[in-house]
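Data availability excerpt. The first of two example chains:
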Amino acid sequence: MAQPPGDTMPHRGVKICGLTEEAGFDACVEHGADWIGFVFFERSPRNITPQQSDRLSRRHAGGPKRVGLFVHPDDDTLARVLDGVKLDILQLYASPERALALSQRLGVPVWLSQPVSSRAELPTGCLVDRLLIEPKPPAQATRPGGNAQKLDWSMLHGWHPPFPWMLAGGLNPENVEEAVTLTGAPAVDVSSGVESAPGVKSPEAIKRFIQNARKPHFSV
């Protein structure tokens, strides 16, 4: 449904994922990101140790909530990371049942990545605190996300789920405004789209991404 002229959208959440260095972290704080993501997955060029993420996190006591991204983690991996750094949210590639069980056992909010390739695959329910809607990885991919692959935004036209969700996949400062206009996404997630090199964030790109993601627009 389109909004009347002059109306503005509520605050749109922005997550910058894959932080590994000080300049990127500081830019997220300075420009008001809602969440920053630390990737705990060895195959990713954005992989970080609990000790490294803790040092970054301690640069600023408040600011964005800290999200830890895990790919089918076992209990030992989760315990090791959580012993090394305080995380506000867990973002998982896992089954919905595993995600729910971890949320209940650990007492921490859990987001679940939900790769899709067609409108028929869009979820109708959510067992955890939020779903991340993103494209399925290409067949040759070595990791489930962070592949700079863009979702077909048209499949989200008119989709208004009754649970919190976030749009991810192939977003960058140049296309995020169009993405939220077409999808009505209440929150967006970016990683490689604001990098100057794999795993190295561009402070200027972070600034522009956040600004463009939050521009007023007409939802569809």
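And the second chain:
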Amino acid sequence: MTQEHEITAPKTKAKKASPMIEIKDLRKTFGANNEVLKGVNLTVNKGEDLVILGRSGSGKSVTIKCIVGLIEPDHGEIKVFDENVLHLSKEKLNEIRVRIGFLFQSGALYDSMSVRENLSFTLKKHQRDLHESEIENQVMEALESVGLGDAIDKMPSELSGGMKKRIGLARTLILKPEIILYDEPTTGLDTITSREISELILDIKHKRKTTSIIITHDMACAKLTADRIMVLKEGVIHAEGTYEELEKSEDEWVRSFFE
């Protein structure tokens, strides 16, 4: 008699998802000898909020501006959505940029345009086939997502600093980005407004499933928003961990951020 054997398919390992952002050996020098980035390496996984800390001039903002091509690095590799953005054609890079939102420190609103016009201008630039009624609906949806639907006809000069940040964020959200880069989102704001912006960043992550890098020196913002923190020092990543881990670091320089 022959013995029957059960045939089973070989087990295969599940493929690990690629990071949403991966930076290797990023270097940037300004002028003759101002070497700001000296080999930055970092990854950001899908759905993660990464906070980058560092002293003024440490290269935090330079790092995220390199990601979207606002600054061209001297050396390194930047992968976004598994594409090396430094080697893409202008057309392909623009396709990637539409999927990335960037919130500037100032909010970067056009002073001569109303809030409605600031948001609709962005939408029309990237989605030319939209009907006016669709544009109006999307503008209002974006404004309501940051709690400022009633500011639609105001001019930037009529807005407080916190409102400008919210409107800037609404303009970022209107294209429904998968990644958002926040450059000092709470700078110049009072404690209460700063917390409101930090809570909004957290709310956006949960509702829209975004992936983010948050550049900040506001430790309250870092504590509230960060899944992970990296600390830049002298052009490289000096330390990495959760807020709680870094707060208890044996490195006195790292601990100084938390005092």
